[in-house]
Amino acid sequence: MEKRSFPYDLSYTQNRELSWLRFNERVLEEANDPSVPVFERLKFLSIFTSNLDEFFMIRVGSLTDLTLLKESHKDNKCGLTAKQQLDEIFQHCMALYRKRDKVYRAVEQELRQYDCCNLAPKELEASEKAFIKEYFRDYVSPVLSPQILDVAHPFPHLENKSLTVAVSLSGEKKELYGLIPVPKSLPRFVVLPGNSLRYILMERILSEFAEDVFTGYTVTEKTVISVTRNADINPDDEAFEVEEDYLVHMKKLLKKRSRLSPVRLELKGSLDNRFISYLCGKLNIEKTQVFKSAAPLELSYVYSLLGKLAPSVARIVTYEPFAPQWPAEVRRNEPVVNQIKRGDILLSYPYESMEPFLRLLKESAQDPNVLSIKITIYRLSHQSKVIDALAAAAENGKDVTALMELRARFDEQNNIDWSQRLEEAGCRVIYGTDGYKVHSKVCLITRRERGKIQYITQIGTGNYNEKTAKLYTDFSLMTANQEIGEDAALFFKNMAIGNLDGEYRKLLVAPHSLKRGLLALIAQETEKAQMGKSARIMMKMNSLTDREVIDALCRASQAGVKIRLLIRGICCILPGVSGKTDNISVTSIVGRFLEHSRIYCFGEGSEMKMYLSSADMMTRNTQRRVEVACPVADKGARRKLFSYLRIMFQDRQKARVMTASGEYLCIPAEGEEELDAQKALMAKAEKQAMALKEQEKALGDTFFHKMRERLRNRRKNKERH
Known about the structure:
By secondary structure, the chain is an alpha/beta fold. Helix content is 40%, strand content 21%. The chain has 20 helices and 27 strands. The strands form 4 sheets. Strands 14, 18, 19, 20, 21, 23, 24, 25, 26 and 27 form a 10-stranded mixed beta sheet that branches. Helix 19 runs antiparallel to helix 20.
């Protein structure tokens, strides 16, 4: 039987995992950027570390699963098997660990200039050593669960990403190993007495007193270890009985996550090869999966440090405070729904506040004309005003339906809790369609006014999460367009009956029509270019991995379409490949805020077709999720969106351009001012908000002036009579 040749052209594509690692390296560059305040650089180190943790749990985990298959699966963008991809990943990560260590040392050294010191035990002063010794005796030692490792004490289960002090022990008659798990009940660090912020990490305290823990032994070697486990649980692959309650199933799944197979072992410091071999054997991993680090293995504690800095120091070492501004096009003293009926409102997070949308929900909860509120929920903050408004609406007799996605990775428990809260308030909660995550962000408010049904629809690129709305760049479109509203009503009906093949007039909805619609729009621009007409495509997204979309963009480039891609993370298309992607440019921006919005534009000028979407161009989004893309027709919203894109593409500080090899390079300024797009958008929002305040003050002054004149004239008339 003749062997089939590999059917994909790999000359203009790259591996998604290595592309992601290059993106995370960009995060590390922010930690190494001297123009970024030093404490913010420490936070970027924490972000880099947590990103890498999730990458191993999810992507390395799923590739590890693929290696267990009998048939070797080859990636359609690089032609490598899962095993080959893992080898590349482990090799690339070794270099990243070395780079992180170097950056971490530099950042910690600079923080010491501001009396923020992460100390080793040997650096403690005599009084501080006494304080830590007493602290260990009174608070730490009573909660420890140390263990030697021998026949009678088998190797324990080490929880995913938990910290453990591993020691080599020497006794009178034998040598063995021991473990001291760092209890979760203990703080991550202990602040030492004094005016400056001098602190010591808990794992260092445990290491320092290891001999006190293992009495009767001599500690010959010690280090901190952490195991990363495969967390790529897909509920669709898990067998469960049809009659089993879905919430119960998800709770069981969460318990299972912590016990999945190891994919990485991290060491802070070093161990002899014999001990490493022992750990690899017990964890069933290869030595290529062992990574040594000089930086702490878990860095989320840095966020707790901020509140302990002196205010005068915090102002120097952190970003200048910025609060999302009230949008210039929204009046504070008028119901939001009335303003939406006059024209679409487009909110740009985090530059503008989420408050107008929250106010719309609150107003709708009280509005006698509102019949129902329907909403899709993927991620929420732990204290959610959205939930409060929905619960209030239900309690006021509105028909409230929440389509809750319980499979939002790592937010499952939060969503389970919120779904129960909504049900208690009288809301109807549904859980989407088996096999497809509902990732769309749609809210539909149905009103009856003067005997007619009227829809107010909100469609966003990001979650209904008040916290991330201050940290992520996203768009929220609120419209009274009836065709969009009718599509949204049909969308919720289809979701309720499990119909994923619905046809819509305006909305593009995955898995049925979103990719098909966007491919048709790319084809239209391709045809225009083939006819000698000017043709353009602009796309902003988090990731591009879908092979069909990549190939369509390549064909468009070959036809002469000018394509500008703004992609924060994974990008599997290589720009500038001769004869293939010459007309494609790829820019990535990593800055203070996480670039999260998805915008798709086709054509030029007034003929440009603009879409906002919840979907990235990844196969999981286009084929395995329920996603929505909404056209932007309102002239004011279109101008605002285009102005935003223009500023983003002018960035010369945080932007990096991708080369044909997949590397990222700084963009030469070429005599232009080195614009930081996010800073420019913050300044623009503040300027517009200030102008709005002055306008409102002037209107208020005029109003009060007229009232005073009226009262004065009234008094004069009384005096005459």
